[in-house]
Design brief:
The chain is built from twelve helices and 17 strands. By secondary structure, the chain is of the alpha+beta class. A hairpin with a 2-residue loop joins β11 and β12. The structure holds 3,4-dihydroxyphenylalanine. 3,4-dihydroxyphenylalanine binds next to β12 and β13.
């Protein structure tokens, strides 16, 4: 999948030169949700991640959870025509997560450095698109599915190995996709509303740049594909407006309108494909990926005679900017000082809720420098830190890298920032934690720590 902003921002340069690695596997079965799974040399799910695997996504369904409020708001804006679906367990086959969606064998998203593998053919879903075909197959033609998704990645205030996405889709029979038909009528209604609100829509993407029409579109229903794309754009522009306009109106110091832009993208399961960005607090914020559903997906869903669109967005990313939540770890906090701020009775409209940080405790950093062994990926380091220190780790950053002139050995130095969201940490406690991290790095990856 793209390293799409809906979940994950571009990786830091420091990580690029590493090989991908497979963690040493213990050949014991892995137990997830009380079910035993066979393991192999792909297995790389640590205990801290295994304990986050539930039969259904949790946070977006908890009371007073900002992710739940946002999910509710998106469902409200898109309306009752979209069937809300709560995803099943995140343990899925790689067929579902990758193959059926058209990911090539060598796609980077399939690497054990990026994905949690239960075993070679089973992983923790990396995106909600894993359930596109399933949702269509159960007879839903318009739906909104919410799920927790898992990715191995860097550690900082906006990255966490578990986060939440919503996937939406709408498909129609070809007879509905004709001029004057029900789809066009819906487009006109949405477009008329959008024409009368203060929002600038930048959308000069040519369909060719966005992947082009699919062969079937060209052959027998180009008009239907164009209407699907028009409906997608009107729907998502409406969603962006409803989510962001109240905040924008409050924060922007001028009468500049809210701005949204459409840019060409590539996804193996849509064509044409787009990303949507919103101008917010001085930069373009990437919020979702979308496109016209590939015919092969519809064929596998038993909907060969239909056509339509799909999108996927990241809930944390939107909630963090809308509610001013400064650190992604806060979503997992049970602290009343966090959840209490999102209690319904506070009377504000949802997009206007603002999180007020409670006391910020001092950070404490420790460095780790080592000679790079072959086949080591920096995600292995991040994972080890996460697994030892849990939510006490705020940030891990590469602060130095060089190659020794004589020995040609490569060196890296990473700074690990420890900070608790809700209490002061003792230096001694951090030393113990950090030593545990170093021990495991030595043991599991034969790191030569300097
Ligand atoms: N699954 C994609 C990701 O996480 C996002 C996405 C893109 C979903 C395009 C879609 C879509 O449904 O049509 O990177």
């Amino acid at each position: 999948m793209s390293k799409l902003g809906v979940g994950i921002a571009a990786k830091r340069v420091c990580g690029r030169g590493f090989h991908n690695s497979v963690r040493l596997a213990s050949r014991q079965p892995l137990v997830l949700n009380g079910i035993e799974y066979a393991t192999d040399n792909y297995t790389n799910v640590p205990a801290s991640i295994a304990s986050r695997v539930h039969p259904h996504p949790q946070l977006p369904y908890l009371e007073n959870q900002p992710l739940a409020l946002l999910r509710g708001e998106i469902e409200r804006v898109l309306g009752a025509r979209y069937m809300p679906i709560r995803a099943p367990s995140p343990v899925v086959s790689t067929r579902l997560n990758f193959d059926e969606l058209g990911f090539p064998e060598d796609h980077p998203g399939r690497q054990p450095s990026d994905t949690y593998f239960v075993n070679k053919n089973t992983c923790l879903r990396t995106h909600t698109s894993a359930h596109q075909i399933g949702a269509f197959r159960s007879g839903n033609l318009r739906w909104l599915l919410t799920a927790d998704v898992f990715r191995r990645d860097e550690i900082d205030s906006s990255h966490y190995p578990v986060f939440h996405q919503m996937e939406g889709a709408s498909v129609w029979n070809h007879e509905e996709l004709v001029p004057g038909g029900s789809v066009e009528q819906e487009c006109v209604a949405m477009e008329q509303k959008l024409a009368n609100v203060p929002m600038e829509i930048q959308d000069q993407v040519s369909v060719e740049d966005a992947g082009g029409w699919q062969p079937k579109h060209e052959a027998n229903n180009r008009q239907g594909a164009e209407l699907s794309m028009r409906h997608l754009k009107a729907t998502l522009n409406t969603l962006v407006y409803e989510l962001f306009q109240p905040r924008w109106a409050l924060e922007s110091q001028s009468d500049e309108p809210l701005k949204v832009r459409w840019i060409p993208a590539f996804f193996p399961f849509t064509s044409p494909s787009f990303e949507v960005e919103v101008w917010f607090r001085g930069k373009w914020l990437e919020i979702l990926g979308s496109g016209v559903v590939q015919q092969s997906i519809l064929d596998q869903s038993g909907l060969a005679d239909k056509m339509g669109w799909a999108f996927g967005l990241g809930l944390e990313r939107i909630a963090m900017v809308l509610f001013s939540i400064p650190d992604i770890r806060l979503f997992w906090s049970q602290d009343k000082r966090f959840l209490g701020q999102f209690a319904k009775q506070s009377g504000r409209s949802l997009p206007l809720m603002t999180f007020k940080p409670y006391s910020k405790h001092p950070p404490c950093y420790k460095d780790v420098s080592f000679w790079l062994p072959p086949n080591f990926h920096e995600n292995d380091l991040f994972e080890t830190v996460r697994d030892c220190a849990g939510d006490l780790v705020e940030d891990v950053e590469c602060i130095d890298s060089f190659v020794h002139l004589k020995t040609q050995k490569a060196s890296r130095c990473y700074r690990v920032n420890y900070r608790s969201m809700d209490r002061n940490l003792e230096n001694e406690q951090i030393n113990t934690l950090h030593n545990a991290v170093l021990d495991r790095l030595r043991r599991e990856f034969s790191l030569e720590i300097r």
